[in-house]
Amino acid sequence: MRTVLALSIYILCLMDSQILENPAVQFDLSKILNARPVTVVTNHRLVTWTKGIDGNGLADGYLTESAALFNGNKDAHALPDNPLFEANRSHPEIVLHYSNNDTLHNQACSISGAGEVQFTIPKAKYSSVFLALTSAEGTSDLHIQLIYNNAITTKEFVLPDYYQDIKPSDPNLSYLAHDLGKWGKKNNMTEKDHHNIDLLKIQADPARVLKGIRISKTKPGYLVFWAAVGVKGS
Questions:
Q1: Mean pLDDT of 20-35
Q2: 182, 61 in Cβ contact below 8 A?
Q3: Domain range holding 224?
């Protein structure tokens, strides 16, 4: 029994070290970004989100910590000012696309109803891909196509509503940002906590060269796609 336990711990540690040590590549999503779901503060003024995280993009958005403080929300469950989320045992380093210094560019990609987006990535052999996502108004049924040089594979996932907690035993999902509040069109806090940005881990074929990814969903659920990172194979 002790031998089995020790082996299990070793395997988990090995997996964690692979996430932390293998080269991670942040994918460029600039061509598909179409939404600004995060209110930022710059030059002593709030720049309010324009297409949010709920209500088909019309109901609520997130705030950065500085924006929440400027708004008068003390101890708010806001997004960190620094959009870089450091690597941990669940995921590699990931950078979201919002910034208190940027009042113009889009921050995420939203899909309302049935739809799809596709983007190219630096061609390489990857062991896994991580997608930062939120689903509002219920779950989103996702169809993820990994586009290799010589094949396309499709994987199916159900992304939970961003208010739902992730089961610790879930092999595919983890939190990128956890227990967030949300704010309305006038930056009025509508709920103080319990919302998330989830991270979906997708196993890739490390023996093939991956060159693109397509994300499609059925009608139910409002999806926001925040960022994507690939971990190169050993």
A1: 89
A2: yes
A3: 23-232
Q: 141 near 220, Cβ under 8 Å?
A: yes
pTM of the model: 0.90
CB under 8 A, 24+ apart: contacts of 172-179:
172/200, 172/201, 172/202, 173/198, 173/199, 173/200, 173/201, 174/90, 174/91, 174/198, 174/199, 174/201, 175/90, 175/199, 176/85, 176/91, 176/94, 176/132, 176/226, 177/79, 177/80, 177/85, 179/77
End-to-end, the C-alpha distance of the chain in Å comes to: 30
Query: Does residue 13 lie in a domain region?
Result: no
The residue assigned the tokens 């630096």 is 122
3-state SS, 54-114, equals EHHHCCEEEEEHHHHHHCCCCCCCCECCCCEECCCCCCCCEECCCCCCCCCCCCEEEEECC
The rounded distance, in Å, linking the Cα atoms of 165 and 174 is 10
* Interval 72-97: pLDDT, tens: 998 899 999 999 999 999 999 999 99
Instruction: Tell me how far apart the 2 most distant CA atoms of the chain are, in Å.
Output: 61
Rounded CA-CA distance 82/180 in Å is 15
Within a domain: 81: yes
Give the residues across from 217 on adjacent strands: 115, 142
Mean pLDDT over residues 111-115, rounded?
96
**11 inside domain:** no
Q: How many CB atoms lie within 10 A of CB 173?
A: 18
Integer Cα distance of 144 and 156 in angstroms: 6
Residue 218 lies in a domain: yes
